[in-house]
Amino acid sequence: MNHFPLLSFTIFVPLLGALALALLPNLSEKGLKQVGLYLSLSTLLFVVLLLRQFDPTQSGYAITEKYAWIPSLKVNFSLGLDGISLLLIGLTALISPLCILTLPKTNTNSRLYILLFLILQSAALGVFLTLDFIPWFLFWELSLVPSYFLIKLWGGSNAAKAAYQFVIYTMGGSAFMLLAFAGIYFKTGTFNFVELTELAKSGGLTLSLASLGHTWTVIVFLGVFIGLAVKVPLYPFHTWLPLAYSEAPTGASIFMTAVMSKMGVYGFIRILWPLFPTLLHRASGFLVWLALAGVVLGAFAAIRQTDIKRMLGYSSINHLSYCLLALFSISSITPESAMGYAPITAAFAGLLLQLFNHGLSAAALFYCVGFIESQLSTRSITEIGGIRKVAPRLAGFSGVALFCSLGLPGLSGFIGEFLIFKGVWGIHPIISTIACLGLFATAYFLLTFWQNVFHGATTENVKSTLKDFTASDVLTLAPITLLMVLLGIFPSILIQLFNPLIQHWASSLVLP
Amino acid sequence: MNALPCTIYLSFTGALLALLIGKRSALGARIVALATALLGLEITLSAAFSYIPNPHGLTTLVNTPWISQLGIHYYLAVDGISLTLLILTGLATTAGILFSWNIEERVGEFFALYLVLIGGVYGVFMSADVFLFFVFYEIAIVPKYFLVAIWGSKNKEYGAMKLVLYSFVGSSLVLAGLIWTYAASGASSFGLPDLIQASSHLTHIQHIEIFGLIFFGFATLAGLFPLHTWAPTGHVAAPTAASMLLAGVVMKLGAYGCLRVALPLFPQAIDFWQPIIACLAVLGIIYAGLIALIQEDFKYVIGYSSVSHMGFVILGLISCNLKSLSGAVLQMFSHGIIAGLLFAVVGRMVYERTHTRNLNELKTMGLGKRLPFVACVFVIAGLASMGMPAFSGFPAELTILIGTWKVSAVWATAAAVGILISAAFTLRAIQLAFFSDAKSVTSANTHAFAPITLPEKLGSILLIGTTLIIGLKPDLLFNLINPALQSPYFENIIKGVTS
């Protein structure tokens, strides 16, 4: 325990800032945006401070905090930071200010818009840092409220349905997760992830749950699984996503794809896998196929879209399914297969890199597409063309993000996907081969998109109404675009953060 | 602590004063009512803060013979559970008066009846003699009728009649059960500790039979499916303050009766009744939730949501273990606050301005923009009602879920489905009433509404503050509830069921 509660500050500064913002007297539009931006940027400062304290050679939680919260239920507000959480709060710190900068020019209630994003930021940080189910679930659910209102109040014409569907799907997942954890608590008397992980390692958790009977153990597992799978989303729990992503305002789409989907994957890594290694292992043989379906079908569905935001939505499913493919491949390994750690560490490292890189590239793509939509008032791929000539800066930034997303060597997307394929190839050659199909399809739809929208004949509306990125847009996107290039060349900057962790994890994998 | 019985006398005195002053000045009656409510709240809160849990169970406040030939005593006693519900009563009363500040018609009589009802409720939560319990219980039922029949809205006579008939049928079942117990067990008095001892001499069959009578009698008032039908009708017909009290506090009388009287007296009956009652509770949670999902009338949505949430209370009670019971008591408290807030928004803040409760009409009014404060309050109340973490409903439903797992995973699962349904209907109501699409807002509805008054703001802040404080720090109440449940008073029922 360190003296200054850095982790708590990281989580609560945006939230308290949001409260202060709600009570502040009338600020000018510009003032509001500035205050919001500073509050949001505070996380970046904390991440830098945390990085200085962080010792990457350690594999456990480098920084922890713990406060008693509800003693009668033995609930603590316990926080912990390791390489994986650091990676994801870093991503949150980069993406959140970007979302606030997407504030529409003709906004009627900027205060609420900024406030909701600050709450969303705190919720995400809380999910990545808490180690006890109750506070974790609090932040997990808290993230729904601002997203609902952002979609509902600033979304497109079909926003009401999108927002409702999004919340009900996610709440459905959460209700079952709550049920599952009530059962786990009833059997073990603790909500703490670390204690539960220890219990799972020693086999105690399986034993205590076994007294519920096999069916109910499986239902507890499924409860947690569904809660997480809806959030990522894993095929076939993805049906809420295309509508929600396409109707949401640009900022919300960015946050949902770049950060919120990572909350689900993070939950798989932090909760489901350590707590239910045996059950996950048994299910993995099937789950890899679901993840594969996400990769392939996501990409093919994206090909068929004419709405550019829906296309990016499906592309998100496709990219996140790579992460899950890696995860389920690792968890499906049996001791008899007697393979080295190399594929495991490769797949795991690829998974984490892909999480980060997808965050960057998807955020940039949604920013560009949102920019186009706000100017042309259309999202139809057939009505837009030849942007490159009219708006070269816009096209340039879109191009970098697009090729990063596609996995072009030299940009950050490449190394993540490469490692995932390398790892999965070592474990499931056949699945890896089929997943390549998805890779081609991804390349195909992204290139088609690139060709139609940015090249070709300049359409009338583009010629007459589209303006190029202004200096402020360039400044907004420059940091993450530079990162895409930088991390493409030096991926070790990120890998060193979690390398000891995954080495340790791979060597101590609870193999059934 | 010893001032607690004063809350009863104070309410009755306040009622009389309000009646007298109300003839001359409406404002006077309001102030008298508010002062009475605040004093009551102050007494309960200071009692709760200074309360030291009694390891033997109830702490006696007053115990003097009343009708000594029948062994009836004026016996008031409290433990942490009663204190929790007394605080709820204090809070709900205060908020109810704030939200009925604008009543113009027969003000004195309104507040007089209101305070008599409150006096009865305080009495029930403190009685440790079942006869006295019953007397206070009846005192609370009568004013309800007049409150609904005189100041109610649409269908008020029907609603009032249905409400009171159900209550009377329920209470006569309870009375029959109590007399049977007294006669058959040969108890020396109607005091609860005596009866608990004496009832252990009853046969197993008698336990089952009498428990059935008394539990279902009380459960009628708690809105147990399928005896709940009075609740939505009555709540909808009642004036705002009365619906807040009916849903917030009076339904708790039934649940409290189950916990204080039915369960400890007949622990041997629990094994027999548990599957049946739990099944009904779960059906109630889901059925009422589904009905709420299709209502057109805003107030009916809230009325049915009350039935659904009370299903959780019954499920927690009948699961009979420390976790589920503490969750059930917390849920009583939490639902009292949240339902009060929801009814205040719908009945007072929205209806008094729009004069409609039809969701399809409200949809055309764009209330989210025109009444931002109300929208904000309803969103918070709705989130609390959905069981969002950080609000009081969450720890309550969570502990009930944990406790229910102990008995049957099937019910726990069904209850989780209930949580999802409650999210769905609350969200639907929020969306329709406050955040409809701009295109469906008709231009005819642009006249300005009366501004939100100060009492409305104070009432909202009081209730929202409470649900947040308890949600973030549930131990404030768990520390009152748990020692009471671990006392010898409840040891029979908690031991009575083994998982």
Summarize the structure.
Chain A is mostly helical and 512 residues long. Chain A contains 22 helices and two strands. Chain B is 75% helix and 3% strand.
Mind explaining what this structure looks like?
- The complex is a heterodimer of chains A (512) and B (499).
- With 512 residues, chain A is mostly helical.
- Chain A is 76% helix and 3% strand.
- Chain A has a two-stranded antiparallel sheet.
- In chain A, helix 15 (342-376) crosses helix 22.
- The mean pLDDT of chain A is 87.
- Chain B is mainly alpha-helical and 499 residues long.
- Helices cover 75% and strands 3% of the residues of chain B.
- Chain B has helices at residues 6-22, 26-50, 80-99, 107-126, 130-151, 156-185, 192-199, 204-222, 230-237, 240-265, 270-293, 298-319, 322-354, 359-362, 367-370, 372-386, 393-407, 409-434, 454-472, 475-486, 491-496, and strands at residues 59-67, 72-78.
- Chain B has a two-stranded antiparallel sheet with strand order 1-2.
- In chain B, helix 13 (322-354) runs antiparallel to helix 16.
- Chain B starts with 5 loop residues before the first helix and ends with a helix.
- The mean pLDDT of chain B is 87.
- Classes of the chains: A mainly alpha (512), B mainly alpha (499).
- Chains A and B meet through helix 5, helix 6, helix 7 and helix 10 of A and helix 17, helix 18 and helix 20 of B.
Write the layout of secondary structure elements.
The complex is a heterodimer of chains A (512) and B (499).
Chain A: H1 6-23, H2 29-53, E1 63-70, E2 75-81, H3 83-101, H4 110-129, H5 133-142, H6 144-154, H7 159-188, H8 193-202, H9 204-210, H10 214-231, H11 241-247, H12 250-275, H13 277-304, H14 308-331, H15 342-376, H16 387-390, H17 392-406, H18 412-427, H19 429-454, H20 460-465, H21 471-489, H22 492-507
Antiparallel strand pairs in A: 1-2
Chain B: H1 6-22, H2 26-50, E1 59-67, E2 72-78, H3 80-99, H4 107-126, H5 130-151, H6 156-185, H7 192-199, H8 204-222, H9 230-237, H10 240-265, H11 270-293, H12 298-319, H13 322-354, H14 359-362, H15 367-370, H16 372-386, H17 393-407, H18 409-434, H19 454-472, H20 475-486, H21 491-496
Antiparallel strand pairs in B: 1-2
Helix pairs in contact in B: 1-2, 1-4, 2-3, 2-4, 3-4, 3-10, 3-13, 3-19, 3-20, 4-5, 4-10, 5-6, 5-10, 6-8, 6-9, 8-10, 9-10, 9-12, 10-12, 10-13, 11-12, 11-18, 12-13, 12-17, 12-18, 13-16, 13-17, 13-19, 13-20, 16-18, 17-18
